[in-house]
């Protein structure tokens, strides 16, 4: 009865124990395909911690690659520039450079022993599964390219979030396109970094997950990748599991994180009716160690490139397995998120006497969260679209996001209409945005918008609008002097001390507070 092999128990399945004293077996060159929010920071940290490994990030977007070669990086991430410069600019640090950015995809693939796939996997927009399933065509074309140019065996690592059993698809494409006799071992090594804290997450990860086949070659590949992380991650944080469990674990982690936010947002609606305070409710439930305090902050709705896409992908997979109740369960998380964004807009309209026509709303923040310039799936798109439809004039200020990007994000909404275009102004400061405004709507929790806490400290770098403003807190008394009466603040992030603002004459409406 006790004859169950150790490898049959899930977690002890294959304990990888990278020996810090040995160099990664065989891995001297890594190629990362995709120089985005995941590929760039991940490669920079791997290179900085593995001076003996040459890490090259490739992308078909020349402009992006060129930007990675400068000090004006294509993405803003606290601490990123320092890590990139450390690994990339050896001359400055007396360290041999080992981080490179290139558009020479073929050469870099051909030379590497290990390839990280970090291309984007957005929601499909065409055909079967459109609006739900993940689009794998970028991944497919990346592995086709690998198949075409490879002259030696490779370890191929899924960094991008993928549907379950994507590894089988990739293997199939490789077998069909590659030269006979070559071997490609596919690993799943999902990234759990959150934007705004990516470098911290990469340097001190909760866990590194490596999924592999249980074959000797699969295990050997997992060992090689574990050794790369072993340069700075504690061995007991590096866990290896079945390839398909790893693929599913990434989708599941994002779904569970988003589920917490939707749960709290659903409760916030109840709080507003029963006179409870969602921040107090979250605090109280988060003290239970089984629940924990993180990802329980009520908001206007979650955004970002991952949550919505990954939940829809999970639901689509469930549906294709005929697990319709399971699919409905996951999809309800996205439904509540849409509801929360609409509910927030309805509250604005109600408070402003049921008409926004001819009124001016100052929007503070467009990014989907603070400390990033990323605007993918930001709740701001929906809220701004809704208030434009109601006839409001909208004046947007975000400390990091540029006007072109804001207009690009809004181009498929009401703002695409000529009349709505005229209702929209993108401002260079919070004060410019709120001049003559009837209300301020806080959509991103940038520290400078809060009227509490420490002064803001932020490293300089990528695209800050002006050095003078960077790091300054908004002076709410000055805001009050610029606005029309009565003046409202709709805090979609619960970052202001409402009492203090009321003292300045504002009427303040927060999420989940009556
Ligand atoms: C990542 C993951 O890959 C995605 O699956 C996950 O869900 C979110 O995080 P991210 O790094 O945020 O995506 O995407 P993005 O910033 O768009 O970067 C992807 C890069 O891949 C882009 O620079 C794009 O130019 C590049 N790319 C895309 C290629 O080089 N080749 C392609 O065929 C497609
Ligand atoms: C998420 C996951 O956290 C990360 O592990 C995964 O690799 C990628 O997806 P990210 O989207 O970058 O990361 O940021 P996250 O901090 O999770 O926030 C996502 C959204 O939820 C943001 O819009 C944020 O403002 C919102 N949020 C987050 C809340 O509304 N409340 C919270 O308590 C936390």
UniProtKB/TrEMBL annotation:
Domain UDP-glucose/GDP-mannose dehydrogenase C-terminal, residue spans: 362-498
InterPro entries (UniProt xref): 6-PGluconate_DH-like_C_sf (IPR008927), NAD(P)-bd_dom_sf (IPR036291), UDP-Glc/GDP-Man (IPR017476), UDP-Glc/GDP-Man_DH_C (IPR014027), UDP-Glc/GDP-Man_DH_C_sf (IPR036220), UDP-Glc/GDP-Man_DH_dimer (IPR014026), UDP-Glc/GDP-Man_DH_N (IPR001732), UDPglc_DH_euk (IPR028356)
Entry keyword set: NAD, Oxidoreductase
Entry keyword NAD: yes
Top-level taxon of origin: Eukaryota
GO cellular component annotations of the record: nucleus
Enzyme nomenclature, EC number: 1.1.1.22
Pfam family, one: UDPG_MGDP_dh_N
GO MF, one annotated term: UDP-glucose 6-dehydrogenase activity
Active site: 306
Record GO biological process: glycosaminoglycan biosynthetic process
Family indicated by similarity: Belongs to the UDP-glucose/GDP-mannose dehydrogenase family.
Record-given protein name: UDP-glucose 6-dehydrogenase
Species for this entry: Karstenula rhodostoma CBS 690.94
Lineage summary: Eukaryota, Fungi, Dikarya, Ascomycota, Pezizomycotina
């Amino acid at each position: 009865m006790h004859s169950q092999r150790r490898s049959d128990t899930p977690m002890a399945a294959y304990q990888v124990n990278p020996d810090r004293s040995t160099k990664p077996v065989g891995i001297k060159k890594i190629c990362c395909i995709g120089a985005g929010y995941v590929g760039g920071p991940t490669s920079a940290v791997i290179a900085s911690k593995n001076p003996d490994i040459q890490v090259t990030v490739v992308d078909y977007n020349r402009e992006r690659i060129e930007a990675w070669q400068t000090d004006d990086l294509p993405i803003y991430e606290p601490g990123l520039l320092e890590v990139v410069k450390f690994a990339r600019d050896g001359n400055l640090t007396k360290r041999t450079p080992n981080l490179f950015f290139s558009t020479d995809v073929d050469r870099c693939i051909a030379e590497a022993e290990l390839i990280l796939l970090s291309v984007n996997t957005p929601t499909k927009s065409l055909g079967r599964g459109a609006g739900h399933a993940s689009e794998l065509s970028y991944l497919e074309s990346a592995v086709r390219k690998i198949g075409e140019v490879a002259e030696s065996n490779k370890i191929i690592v899924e960094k991008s979030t993928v549907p379950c059993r994507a590894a089988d698809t990739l293997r199939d494409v490789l077998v069909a396109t590659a030269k006979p006799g070559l071997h490609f071992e596919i690993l799943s090594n999902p990234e759990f970094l959150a934007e705004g804290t990516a470098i911290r997450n990469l340097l001190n990860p909760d866990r590194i997950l490596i999924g592999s086949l249980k074959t000797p070659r699969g295990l050997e590949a997992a060992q090689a990748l574990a050794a790369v992380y072993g340069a700075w991650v504690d061995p007991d944080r590096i866990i290896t599991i079945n390839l398909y469990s790893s693929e599913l674990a990434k989708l599941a982690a994002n779904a569970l994180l988003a589920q917490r936010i939707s749960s709290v947002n659903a409760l916030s609606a109840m709080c507003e009716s029963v006179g409870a305070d969602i921040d107090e409710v979250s605090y109280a439930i988060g003290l239970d160690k089984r629940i924990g305090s993180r990802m329980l902050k009520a908001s206007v709705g979650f955004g970002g490139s991952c949550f919505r896409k990954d939940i829809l992908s999970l639901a689509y997979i469930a549906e294709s397995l005929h697990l319709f109740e399971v699919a409905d369960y996951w999809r309800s998380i996205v439904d509540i998120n849409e509801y929360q964004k609409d509910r927030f807009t309805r509250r604005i309209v109600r408070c402003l006497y049921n008409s926004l026509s001819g009124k001016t709303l100052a929007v503070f923040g467009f990014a989907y969260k603070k400390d990033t310039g990323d605007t993918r799936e930001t709740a701001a798109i929906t809220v701004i679209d809704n208030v434009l439809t109601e006839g409001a004039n909208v004046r947007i200020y975000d400390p990091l996001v540029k006007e072109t990007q804001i207009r690009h994000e809004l181009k498929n909404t009401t703002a695409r209409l000529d009349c709505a275009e005229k209702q929209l102004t993108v401002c260079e400061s919070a004060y410019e945005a709120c001049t003559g405004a009837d209300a301020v709507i806080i959509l991103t929790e940038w520290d400078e918008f809060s009227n509490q806490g420490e002064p803001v400290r932020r490293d300089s770098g990528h695209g800050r609008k002006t050095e003078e403003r960077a790091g300054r807190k908004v002076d709410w008394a000055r805001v009050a002097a610029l606005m029309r009466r009565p003046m409202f603040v709709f805090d979609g992030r619960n970052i202001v001390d409402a009492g203090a603002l009321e003292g300045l004459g504002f009427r303040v409406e927060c999420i989940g507070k009556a």
